[in-house]
Amino acid sequence: MKITLMDRSLYFKGLLLLIRKDRLIHNAERDLMMRVGKIFEYETHFCEDTIRDVLVNKYIDDSPPRFSDPEIAKCFIRDGIRLSLSDGFVDEKESAWIKAVVERNELDKTWFSNALETVSKRSSETTEYDLEALCLEWV
């Protein structure tokens, strides 16, 4: 699936916003964000700095992303669920924010329930190769 530069940026930023929802960045979350940054070919220092600063930067717009294609939004949401589960549990604020992304992208709530169940069952086995971001090609 093709992804534009804007959607790629929204994808990475959206995942950053998600990990700051519980005001803690766990090592598993940091590792997964670094993997996504590598997939999107962002510089390592950029990813490290952005992850470090996301908790303290009060100027970041916290709005859920609106993607140009619902299929990209679905990939993002599945990766967001994986990211939320990477520290062992989904915080209530993380869950609410993911639901806001579903609504903003006008996705079916039944689809989301099924995605949540499917991804949750496989979350303990998540590897770099399970990330939806790997399926995306730059336009």
Short description:
The chain is mainly alpha-helical and 139 residues long. The chain has helices at residues 5-19, 27-39, 44-53, 70-85, 92-104, 109-122, and strands at 2-3, 137-138.
SS elements, strand count: 2
Largest sheet: 2 strands, parallel
Indicate the overall shape.
globular
Specify the helix fraction band.
55-70%
Q: How much strand?
A: under 5%
Distance between the termini: 9 Å
Order of helices and strands: EHHHHHHE
Number of helices: 6
Tell me the structural class.
mainly alpha
Q: What is the domain total for the residues?
A: 1
Q: How would you state the average pLDDT, rounded?
A: 92
- CATH architecture descriptor: Orthogonal Bundle
Unreliable stretches covering 5 or more consecutive residues: none
The strand line-up of the biggest sheet is 1-2
**CA radius of gyration:** 14 Å
CATH classification, class level = Mainly Alpha
The CATH topology name reads TerB-like
In words, what does this structure look like?
The chain is an all-alpha fold and 139 residues long. The protein has six helices and two strands, in the order E-H-H-H-H-H-H-E. The protein has a two-stranded parallel sheet with strand order 1-2. Helix 1 runs parallel beside helix 4 (70-85), helix 2 (27-39) runs antiparallel to helix 3 (44-53) and helix 4 (70-85) packs across helix 6 (109-122). The longest helix is centred in the middle third of the chain and has 16 residues, at 70-85. The chain is globular, with a radius of gyration of 14 Å. The N and C termini lie close together (9 Å).
